[in-house]
Amino acid sequence: MRRLTPYLLALPSWMWLAIFLVVPMVAMASVSLQTGNAYDGYAMTFSFSNYGEALGRYSTQLLRSLLYGGLATVAMLLIGYPVAYWIAFRGGDRKSMYLFLLLLPFFVSFVLRTISWNFLLADNGILFGTLKGWGLLPESFHVLATTLAVVGGLTYNFLPFMILPVYVALERVDPRVVEAAQDLYATRAGAFRRVVLPLSLPGVFAGVLMTFVPATADPINAQILGGTGNTMIGNNIQTEYLVNLNYPTASALSFTLMAVLLVGIFAYARALGTENVLEAAAR
Amino acid sequence: MTSGERGRLGDRLLHAYTWLVIVWLSAPIAVMILFGFNDKQSKSNTSWQGFTLRWYAELFEISDLTVALRNSLVIALVSTVITVVLGTMLGLSLGRHRFRGKGVTNFLVFAAISTPELVMGASLLSLFVSGNVPRDANTIIVSHVLFSLSFVVVTVRARIVTLDPSLEEAARDLGATAWGTFRQVTLPSIMPAVMAGAMLSFALSIDDYVVTSFVNGSTVTFPLWIVGAVKTGIPPQVNVMGTLIFCVGVLIAVANAVVARRRA
Amino acid sequence: MNPPLRGPLTGRTRRDVFRLAGYSAAGLALAACGVQGQKVAPPKADAVQDFWAKQTKNGKVVFANWPEYMPEDKGPLERFKKDTGIAYEYKEVIQENADFFGKADPVLRAGQSLGYDIVVMTNGVQLQHMLQLGYAVPLDHTRLPNFQANAGQKFKERSYDPGNKYTIPYASGVTGIAYNTDHVEEEITSIEALFDPRYKGRVGMMNDAQEIGNFGMFAVGVDPETSTEADWKKAGEKLKAQRDAGLVRKYYDQGYIDAVAKGDVWVTMAWSGDVFQRQLAGEPVAFVVPEEGGTIWTDNMLIPKGAANPLDALMLMDYLYQPAVAAELDEFIQFVTPVPAVQDLFRERAKTAGDKDKKALNDMIDSPLMFPSEADYAKLRTYTTLTTQQEQVFNPIFQSITQA
């Protein structure tokens, strides 16, 4: 019975993933190797050149997406870690309240959030208009339609996905251990670096996985907040699929993106020394 | 300054900082709430034209919007429950045990997060079409569980790997059944992760547009209706509904804190 | 099962291979039926006759439309029900043309029904795909008397569906130039304003290949309806130069209207309906159809293949062309109506209406954004109609500008 436990626990999710993820992914893999067009039909020709072509055409956007996703992830970690830390150690009986408040804005539609941000961040809106009125900003200053807006948008939209897992890992750490460590290493910084940080790493890893990956593939922030030259790979996949009906290129692009992300995540796991988190997967 | 005083100052700063982040995340919500009171004169609800409570009185006048909101709430609740149960089980399995197929499982969990939404939606749709499955609220729930599952698994696993397994072993040595051990020992210690996972899945589900737009058939959800209405102008009732969701959420959060304090 | 797919798996245990092989087979079957060819010959005239001769009135119709595209009391549909005894189901299920087509394609390809008898789609690349793939039922014009009698001339001559073989318009709008009157002092009349260095970084262009392509062509003096590959390239160069000079702030979807109303951009490509609503709200935006030309876009009703109640659908489509019904619709939607007589009906009503209604009606009657003038209509063109091969040339030219 004990030997079967892990399998029984995993079984329902396996079935879910096998039917609804693996089957469609295999179909997509097959589409990515076909040639033709939507009218005459696509035929399987094992044209691996689809990948080369897709990559050749969109390598700029792919690299840009990785850069934006990476920058946003670093920003989320820097912004989110202290929040998770404070709630975990000092939240007391209000821990759930704080977490809930952090997540609530994401219960209303992204369309409403976006419209509101456009209102708040307009070139001459209540924020920048006022600052410009006081002469604190040059007249031509703007945030919307810039790289900063896209990375900021990604940071904003995925931040809870960083805070929650880090919190979950930190909350486990006994405050008395931290106190003892402070006595031992004499400084709070030392105690943090040698005791708290290592204990929180699984949470950090989970947070990075849950933010870097979807942020890199996200089309919406670039579409709404970006300017010319901020197109991300998610936008290209969308256009190839929905506008050009070029299903093979769209599939090849998606697989390329997923493969790059996979390599990136495992390299990161190695660097962080958290192989144990993903033990088997790294093998 | 002693290290204790410095510590207290640091705590106070962090406390203020946490609130600052909450305010930042909620800033657009303030605008949304404001425009729910806008006495707008045309279809566009974008510039302030005076205060009115009209949209609160006429909240349910747009029947399709009301239905869409109800659909979204039901779908989010059901898919969250399923996701949390499945995800916690898989998280336990991955975080606690070694077994054959663990590598593949880890890979699949990762793949589900990294699949671009559009591709996931499109491929789910062709799966349903080729299986002749009618598209409705059920297919939406199935899809939402699929894309939220990994987030719960990853969160729960991050918690479990920090736990000391000896506690569970001790419980078993004292004669507790497997179920008893889980309920008395394991579940309480992973509860924060389960709750966090539940909140994440709820947020993912209630705000999803792309995947839902493929697998919804003729069932419309709140985000779908709003995206469609952008073409002619979003009616203020949408803002009011958003406001109510937000306020109910704040009430729950506060009530939660009060109850926790009483219990303590 | 194709051997090369099994190749990378040789290191695995046998059970794994079997498992994956099973999935792959299922997946390939799926993929195969997902992308069959669908090219169709145009329907023969008598086949169309035969199809319609066989149809009977079923007493119900399912109408799929965009949100906020029908008065909340469903007045026009209620009247239809009263007059014809046909019950209706009205569903606000269309959010985006691209998303709607992405969802409809696999269903219709598999020969299944969407479950709708009428759908509304904008003319553009997705509607073109619907028609070319044979996803629309050809219409029986002998059963469209109101359309014949009441539709404006412009709405009967549309290059993307000559002779209204598959579609008739629901509502229309114009793509022109909007500018912020707080920031732009001159009166803009020419498309050159979008290429004027004085507005560097303050110009908004549209993201859609057809929309931006049209404006590129107007700018180089080409009529998009009769354009050639060489023209597209020339237009592409003009637009690329505009981009490289830093004139364009962003290639917009719907968001341009907020941007121009708030002064983030000063001059932008724009849709008439959006601008009209902002003017009613008192925001500082003006709209013009540039002298070089503007685009008329149309949301069209069509009957998707496999519809259960085509005859009832056709009756409803025609019913909406009664001037009184069209007026009721247009008063709510406030776009350009395909029934010009609506303007006169509004004038009649304005004579007897109360003060507030009278002002609202007069705002509509007088607006060239709802009732374009003859001179405006003369400048309006539809999108370039493309074959599959042409699309593969056209799209990259403009997408490489908007999606770089």
Automatic annotation (TrEMBL), chain A:
Membrane-protein topology: Multi-pass membrane protein
Alphabetical GO biological process terms: transmembrane transport
Keyword entries, A-Z: Cell membrane, Membrane, Transmembrane, Transmembrane helix, Transport
Domain ABC transmembrane type-1: 62-268
Ranges annotated as spanning the membrane: 7-27, 66-87, 99-121, 141-170, 191-213, 250-269
Location in or out of the cell: Cell membrane
Signal peptide (UniProt feature, chain positions): none
Entry GO CC: plasma membrane
Major localization class: membrane
Top-level taxon in the UniProt lineage: Bacteria
KW Transport (keyword) present: yes
Family that this chain belongs to: Belongs to the binding-protein-dependent transport system permease family. CysTW subfamily.
PANTHER family for the chain: INNER MEMBRANE ABC TRANSPORTER PERMEASE PROTEIN YDCU-RELATED, INNER MEMBRANE ABC TRANSPORTER PERMEASE PROTEIN YDCU-RELATED-RELATED
Protein name: ABC transporter permease
Species: Nonomuraea deserti
From TrEMBL, chain B:
Alphabetical list of Gene3D superfamilies matching this protein: MetI-like (1.10.3720.10)
Main location: membrane
One GO BP annotation of this record: transmembrane transport
Membrane-spanning ranges: 16-37, 73-95, 107-128, 140-158, 240-259
Pfam family membership, one: BPD_transp_1
Membrane topology field: Multi-pass membrane protein
Source species, domain of life: Bacteria
Location in the cell: Cell membrane
Keywords: Cell membrane, Membrane, Transmembrane, Transmembrane helix, Transport
Stretches assigned to the ABC transmembrane type-1 domain: 69-256
Any one of the GO CC terms: plasma membrane
CDD domains hit by this protein: TM_PBP2
Family per record: Belongs to the binding-protein-dependent transport system permease family. CysTW subfamily.
Protein name, as recorded: ABC transporter permease
Organism whose genome encodes this protein: Nonomuraea deserti
Automatic annotation (TrEMBL), chain C:
Keywords, in A-Z order: Periplasm, Signal, Transport
GO CC entries: periplasmic space
Example of a GO biological process term: polyamine transport
Leader sequence segment: none
UniProt cross-references to Pfam families, sorted A to Z: SBP_bac_8
Electron transport is among the record's keywords: no
Subcellular location: Periplasm
CDD domains: PBP2_PotD_PotF_like
SUPFAM superfamilies per record: Periplasmic binding protein-like II (SSF53850)
GO molecular function: polyamine binding
Classification via PROSITE patterns: PROKAR_LIPOPROTEIN, TAT
Protein name: Spermidine/putrescine ABC transporter substrate-binding protein
Natural source organism: Nonomuraea deserti
Source organism phylogeny: Bacteria, Bacillati, Actinomycetota, Actinomycetes, Streptosporangiales
